[in-house]
Design brief:
Layout lengths: L1 H4 L2 E3 L5 E3 L19 E2 L6 H12 L4 H5 L4 E9 L5 E8 L3 H11 L8 E3 L2 E3 L1 E9 L3 H10 L4
Antiparallel strand pairs: 1-8, 2-8, 3-6, 4-5, 4-8, 6-7
Length: about 150
């Protein structure tokens, strides 16, 4: 029942990484010698593990559920050089109680393999959309109105 009422969706694509430079991410074998080589941070278990942690750990705010408030929150965070979450910010929120829950959930995602640039660990920022639905009826209506699959 928890999963039914407290469903959180990450976009099918997952999240968009925004690196620290304007260079294209390439794997080391194919990159020319004079180009910057970047490797994005990786979460153990990939996207599926992120989905699982977020959905299993979600505590939907009671008042938001009662008032049937939900939607999309865009949250920005940084994976630091140790693979931990830092600098979490709400880029587009819904309201304070849901925004705080989104921040709490993001801080549960420590343990990344850090990103690298030319073999040196670097901080990498991500934007992650989280979808909050208080119930199945809300989810279906929201997805239809916003053309979400």
């Amino acid at each position: 029942m928890k999963q039914y009422f407290f469903t959180i969706f990450l976009l099918c694509i997952g999240f968009l990484g925004v690196g620290q430079t304007d260079t294209v991410i390439q794997n080391q074998e194919s990159a020319p010698k004079n180009k910057t080589i970047q490797i994005m941070p990786k979460f153990p278990g990939g996207e599926q593990a992120i989905y699982k942690i977020v959905s299993d750990s979600m505590v939907y705010p009671k008042l938001a559920a009662k008032e049937r408030i939900g939607g999309r929150i865009i949250i920005q965070f940084t994976v630091d050089t140790m693979g931990n979450i830092a600098d979490v910010k709400i880029m587009r929120g819904i309201r304070e109680d849901l925004d705080k829950e989104a921040i709490r959930l993001i801080y549960l995602l420590n343990g990344w393999t850090p990103g690298t640039e030319n073999g040196k660990k670097v901080r990498v920022s991500f934007n992650l959309p989280l979808y909050f639905y208080p119930d199945e009826k809300f989810r279906k209506k929201y997805k239809k109105e916003n053309s979400i699959k």
